[in-house]
Specification:
Layout: H1 2-15, E1 47-50, E2 54-56, E3 61-63, E4 68-71, E5 80-87, E6 90-94, E7 105-115, E8 124-130, E9 136-141, E10 146-148, E11 151-154, E12 160-165, E13 171-178, E14 184-185, E15 197-207, E16 216-222, E17 228-234, E18 238-240, E19 243-247, E20 251-257, E21 263-270, E22 276-277, E23 282-283, E24 287-297, E25 306-313
Parallel strand pairs: 3-8, 11-16, 19-25
Antiparallel strand pairs: 1-4, 2-3, 5-6, 5-7, 7-8, 9-12, 10-11, 13-14, 13-15, 15-16, 17-20, 18-19, 20-23, 21-22, 21-24, 24-25
Length: about 325
């Protein structure tokens, strides 16, 4: 505020104008003096941005590349002699050609009008934000993404969010496409088609003055396949009447494989107990036992449960010699 006041004072001092009795004015910028002097046909505002989309967020105008600013003025009576301008707070003399800005960000155009008999209008200030950069974009997911080598893997039901941020005018729209499909509007998080394998998402965003980001691609492998698990026992079971027998000290092992991401966890449950981590082969006590196993891959796919029931036969067989009867 102090700056503006000093600027105004400076303008008056430099231009050396005195009383404003029948000052020229800007259309629709009614001052107490101008109110009775307005002409009927007036442009909407004295500073007009041209050559670019103009977006107003309710506070300030935003423009894109190639914007030019035209100042219009009119005067009852002697007519407009000159418009004096002050661009980005530095005195720029008389307005001749439309004003342009080379750099992004906030700019100001201050102006006042002189008529042919020396009346000066009030000093007015126009603020504009030049936005030359497209939104920044990225993809986010609601579940973990596993990187193996150069490849990224996700599990089923992974939702993708496109995050877009814009420095100045704000994000107007975001678009995306999956695979070879056409771009469509992005509004909410989405999931990939339920097909195991590689998928490519393309996406871009546009700001409120028409800057469009480069199309980015995000390629990810959708792993929908659960691991495979197998149970084995060493030494191998002896099967009789559908029952599997093993000796005391037999070891039950689990092997798990996953074709895509690999195994995160192998779990087993003994005789209906809770699932616990499997690390080493399990040695069963004598009697009948059921062991269940399952495995989980790195993106959370859970295998089928595999179960094995074994009878650990720790009884030594008995034998007796009976003399043969004739
Ligand atoms: Ca006048
Ligand atoms: Ca922008
Ligand atoms: Ca898998």
């Amino acid at each position: 505020m102090r700056k503006l006041v000093s600027v105004l004072f400076f303008m008056v001092a430099v231009l050396g104008f005195g009383q404003q009795t029948t000052a020229p004015d800007f259309p629709n910028e009614a001052s107490s003096q101008a109110a009775t002097q307005q002409t009927a046909v007036t442009p909407e505002r004295p500073v007009q941005a041209t050559g670019s989309v103009v977006y107003n967020d309710g506070k300030v105008d935003y423009v894109g590349a190639n914007a030019k600013f035209v100042i219009t003025a009119e005067d009852k009576g002697s007519g407009v002699k000159a418009i004096y301008i002050m661009v980005d707070n530095s005195l720029s003399g008389k307005y001749v050609d439309p004003i342009t800005f080379a750099t992004e960000g906030k700019h100001t155009i201050g102006y006042r009008v002189e008529d042919n008999v020396g009346n000066l209008s009030a000093f007015k200030m126009y603020e504009v934000v030049v936005d030359l950069s497209a939104p920044e974009t990225r993809i986010a997911t609601d579940k973990k993404v596993v990187a193996i080598g150069d490849a990224l893997y996700v599990g089923k039901d992974t939702a993708f969010t496109i995050v877009a941020n814009d420095k100045y005018s704000g994000v107007k729209s975001v678009e995306y496409a999956i695979g070879e499909g056409a771009f469509g509007a992005y509004n909410v998080a989405f999931v990939l088609p339920a097909q195991n394998g590689l998928h490519t998402i393309r996406y871009r965003a546009m700001d409120n003055v028409g800057n469009v980001s480069e199309v980015k691609t995000y390629t990810v492998y959708l792993d929908l396949n659960a691991p495979k698990v197998e149970l084995s026992v060493d030494p191998a079971a002896f099967e009789k009447d559908g029952v599997k027998y093993v000796p005391a000290g037999a070891r039950v092992s689990v092997s798990a494989t996953d074709a895509e991401t690999g195994i995160a966890e192998v779990l087993y449950s003994l005789d209906g107990g809770d699932y616990v981590a499997y690390n080493f082969p399990v040695v069963l006590a004598p009697g009948t036992h059921t062991i269940k196993v399952k495995a989980i891959d790195l993106v959370g796919n859970v295998s089928e449960e595999v179960s094995l029931t074994l009878v650990v036969d720790a009884e030594e067989p008995t034998g007796s010699l009976v003399p043969a009867q004739k």
